[in-house]
Write a structure and sequence with these properties.
Elements lengths: L7 E5 L6 H14 L1 H6 L3 E5 L2 H11 L5 E4 L16 H6 L4 E4 L2 H5 L5 H13 L3 E6 L3 H5 L3 H13 L10 E5 L13 H17 L9 E3 L8 H5 L6 E4 L6 H8 L4
Parallel strand pairs: 1-2, 1-8, 2-3, 3-4, 4-5, 5-6, 6-7
Length: about 260
């Protein structure tokens, strides 16, 4: 991969892991990736469930391992039972939040307008945002992939004033490849990433500097081919991020 953008390898743990299991996993990663984390050539991030967020953030403090929340609400406070505000997340020392994940869109019905409100609220609290976009199998088969992901990107970023390119990281996650074992070929992923980068540029955002991750069943045996592509700047990893050796191999990709 020949790009000035520092690769970001992010593990989204979803609804997995007790507090003790989360701490054990992070301890394993800190030990296994000590050299990689010290080098600073690649950014590594984990997103545990909310119940383990404080404990993981404390353990990662003083290291270069980044910690993200998996979601947030758009209000700072109020009568919103069960919701977590960006201010609460930032208070834990967490650096990022994942927004717009396909499971939030598909299962919980979040639309582009809600995701935009969350994005603005997170940025206002100084959180970095990993913004997910992606198409269903029906949309891909219908030839609508680029239109779908560009529409989601436009809804989130149009008119947004970013102080720094790293405030928002895009993550292309084809819904048909999440948790299915299927994966877009490197060429398919690159095609969409290139379209996204062009879209970001048309929106007046820093296209050359903004990172775009791939997130669809990334595993040790396919990460090298994906990361060899010019516009793929990292990975948003699901199941493989729950195993120290598997995630470490992804962080240590060769491209």
């Amino acid at each position: 991969m020949t790009t000035p953008r520092r690769p970001l390898l992010a593990g989204n743990w979803k609804m997995h892991g007790t507090r003790a299991e989360a701490l054990s996993l992070v301890e394993g990663l800190l030990g296994r990736l000590q050299g990689q984390l010290a080098s600073g050539t690649r950014e590594v991030l984990v997103a545990p469930p909310f119940t383990a967020l404080d404990a993981v953030a404390r353990l990662a403090a003083g290291t270069s391992l980044r910690v993200a929340a998996q979601n947030c609400f758009h209000e700072a406070r109020g009568a919103y039972t069960g919701e977590i505000s960006p201010a609460m997340i930032a208070d834990l020392g967490v650096s990022h939040v994942i927004l717009g994940h396909s499971e939030r869109r598909e299962i919980f019905g979040e639309d582009d307008a809600q995701i935009r409100r969350k994005l603005e609220a997170a940025l206002a609290q100084g959180l970095g945002v990993i913004l997910c976009v992606g198409e269903t199998l029906a949309q891909r088969d219908g030839g609508h992939t680029v239109a779908v992901v560009e529409g989601q990107t436009r809804a989130a970023l149009e008119g947004l004033a970013l102080a720094r390119p790293d405030q928002v990281t895009l993550a292309y996650e084809p819904i048909w490849a999440i948790g299915t074992g299927r994966v877009a070929s490197p060429a398919q992923a690159q095609e969409v990433h290139a379209a996204l980068r062009a879209c970001v540029g048309r929106l007046g955002q820093p296209a050359k500097q903004m990172r775009i991750l791939y997130g669809g069943s990334v595993k040790p045996d396919n990460v090298d081919g994906l990361m060899a592509q010019a516009d793929i700047d990292g990975a948003l990893v699901g199941g493989a991020s729950l195993e120290v050796e598997a995630f470490a191999r992804i962080v240590e990709f060769e491209a």
